[in-house]
Amino acid sequence: MLKEVLIVEGKSDVAAVKRAIEADCITTGGFHFTRQTLQNISAAYQRRGIIILTDPDSAGENIRNFLSRKFPNAKHAYIPRDEAIFNDDIGIEQASPESIRKALKKVRTLEINPREEFTAAEMVTFKLSGGVDSSKLRDKVGAALGIGYGNVKTFVKRLNNYGVTREEFLTALKKILAE
Q: Which helix (H) or strand (E) holds 109?
């Protein structure tokens, strides 16, 4: 049983999580949070901690950002987009149990004082920006590091905010480039 409570978007997401692990879940019902939902999330946050596991799309990212501001010590798990798509539908409910378990093994917490270890300019050097396959490469590196997909600005922000070390980053990048 997972100690923290998982925050997901809907009932189908809960079903997918339950196929992967034993965990308590709270659904947001999309971005229109009720007062009761926020109270439930707050209680879980204070008592057990929460892990935000939203869909790897713009709506999921908006929900994650909103919750991150309200609950700054929340943990974050990301499922790569390519592991959460079926029949042009993207979401946690589309992910395999193995993908959900992998994401939960790579949980990250936002740092109170983000570092400035990585810059958008150096992403060009690492072929993570400005190239034909930069987006795909960022997606793979983000999945390996457990920080999800993002455009260059979001990707750099996550590298810095989630405490990714340069060694960890370079190891993931080298492994992916060798594949």
A: strand 108-109
Beta strand pairing status for 75-76 and 108-109? antiparallel
Are the C-beta atoms of residues 35 and 3 closer than 8 Å to each other?
no
Q: Which long-range contacts (CB under 8 A, 24 or more apart) does 163-169 make?
A: 163/108, 163/109, 163/111, 163/115, 164/117, 164/118, 165/117, 166/117, 166/118, 169/118, 169/141, 169/145
pLDDT, one tens digit per residue, over 70-115 is: 999 999 999 999 999 998 899 999 999 999 999 999 999 988 777 8
Element (H, E) at 137: helix 134-145
Can you give the residue ranges of every domain in the chain? 1-110, 114-179
User: Could you tell me which CATH number the domain at 1-110 has?
Assistant: 3.40.1360.10
Here the tokens at position 66 are: 């909103």
Instruction: Name the phi and psi angles at 112, rounded to 5.
Output: -60, -45
In 3D, which of 100, 109, 98, 176 has the Cα closest to residue 144?
176
- What gap in Å lies between CA 25 and CA 139, rounded to an integer? 27
Burial 80-116 (b: 16+ CB within 10 A, else e): bbebbeeeeebbbbbbeeebbebbbebbbebeeeeee
Q: pLDDT tens, 7-33?
A: 999 999 999 999 999 999 999 998 888
